Amino acid sequence: MGTEELPRKVVLVPIASGTEAMEAVMVVDVLRRAGADVTIASVEQQPCVVTLHGIKIVADMLISECVNTSYDLISIPGGVQGSIHLRDNHTLSSIVCEHTSAGRIYGATGAASALVLRDWGLLCGREATCYPSFMDRLSSSRHVELVTSRVHICEGIITGQGTGTTLDYAVTLVEQLFGKKSATDVSQQLMMRSYQKANFIDKEYNKKAWSSNCGAKVSVLVPIADGSEEMETVIIIDVLRRAKVEVVVASVSDKLEILASRKVKIVADMLLSDAAKYSYDLIVLPGGFGGAKAFAASRLLVNLLKKQSKEEKCYGATCDSPALVLQLLGLLKDKKATAFPEQCEKLLDRSAAKGRVVIDGKVITSRGFGTTLEFALGIVEKFLGHEKAMEIAKTIVFI
After folding, report:
1. What is the value of pTM for the model shown?
2. Residue extents of the structural domains in the chain
3. CA-to-CA distance for 225 and 246, rounded, in angstroms?
4. Which residues contact residue 347 at a Cβ distance below 8 angstroms, ignoring those fewer than 6 apart?
5. Between vectors from CA 346 to CA 340 and to CA 349, what angle results, nearest 5°?
6. Which helix (H) or strand (E) holds 225?
7. Fewer CB atoms < 10 Å away: N or C end of the chain?
8. pLDDT digits (tens, 9 = 90+) for 267-319
9. Do the Cβ atoms of 16 and 42 come closer than 8 Å?
């Protein structure tokens, strides 16, 4: 018997200047993973949008091009300024108004529940949640009943508290579109946490202090390439920049824009050839099979990683990259590490392979999509302390 084909579902995710990149990209990534046809639409005058923390995303189209399309779901990401820009866009509001009038499902995360859905009058007589600091605004409407759950469903409206709840929110969207089995399958792929915990590093061996050797601020290089995993890329950049780490996003190809594994277009800060002129406290590789292959094929990046190791500076990778890059280059010799489950057999030492985040000396590795927030917070903890990592985790409603 052939595999039953799921019905085609069409989804709109609008973005604006100041949008929470993680809340947009994680939703797009998860829904595309589940088989949805997702359009990222810019409400700005150009497709390239500078989201919160300076992450540049190129939308699939402008919102004006979405007017005549019927969507099964519209999901609105948060971010205060981004939410305001989305709320004030008349084209988007008319699309959403027509969508809701047809009884189709919609949702919002973080500040967007209060600043967009509430202000548009789309939560009247419904229960909803939002980012904690906007709960007073949401509950000030006598027509909205505030709930404090991380993700809430009420009559086809899905709301989430914030960045740290977005994976749960996205999986809930999958369930609403495709059913519980699809949601369970995607959740298992993502390796999501089944519980909340206040420690981000599972296992640490040969414990060493991490500190900045490059100046007052910690400096981190995040290489990206066609095929890099967008969720992992954006999470790493976002969390580190929240911690005031100086992050340079560098394309290993000859162009700044890369097409990530789930077809999200991300624009690097500079080419690797320019980024290589500087030194970094940490070089960290996101996963994605295609991206990892491109990393291993980049002579310049390979030389930078080997130099980083020789100078006893920090480096790390998540998902496919620990096995397909670090192990391949001999940079995990005598090191315990983890990787994406399908790649773990390539690790010479697999004794720590089931750890979500593993550190050995100055090398940090992680399993993949659903472990990346812990991975990024683990980096913050090593450089800036557990208190700082906890502060960020609470700010994004991760714990």
Report:
1. 0.96
2. 10-188, 203-395
3. 20
4. 322, 323, 327, 332, 337, 338, 339, 353
5. 95
6. none
7. N
8. 999 999 999 999 999 999 999 999 999 999 999 999 999 999 999 999 999 99
9. yes
Q: Is-same-fold flag (10-188; 203-395)?
A: yes
* Beta-sheet strands, E only, within 241-349: 246-251, 257-259, 265-267, 270-271, 282-285, 314-318
Residue 94's alpha-carbon distances to 12, 75, 97, 120, in angstroms, are: 13, 15, 5, 10
User: So which residues are the catalytic ones?
Assistant: 319
N- to C-terminal Cα separation, the chain: 44
Whether 284 and 317 have beta carbons less than 8 Å apart is answered as yes
Candidates 3.40.640.10, 3.40.50.880, 3.40.50.150, 3.30.70.100; CATH matching 10-188: 3.40.50.880
Q: What is the 3-state secondary structure (H, E, C) of 340-369?
A: CHHHHHHCCCCCCCCCCEEEECCEEEECCH
Q: Which of 136, 77, 146, 86 is nearest to 106 (CA)?
A: 77
Spacing of C-alpha 52 from chain mean position = 12
Cβ-Cβ contacts under 8 Å for 19 (sequence gap 6 or more): 49, 51, 52, 77, 78, 79, 82, 83, 85, 86
> CB under 8 Å to 52, separation ≥6 — which residues?
18, 19, 20, 21, 79, 81, 82, 238
CA atoms within 13 A on the CB side of 204: 14
CATH code for residues 203-395: 3.40.50.880
Query: Mind listing the pLDDT tens digit for each residue in 246-275?
Result: 999 999 999 999 999 999 999 999 999 999
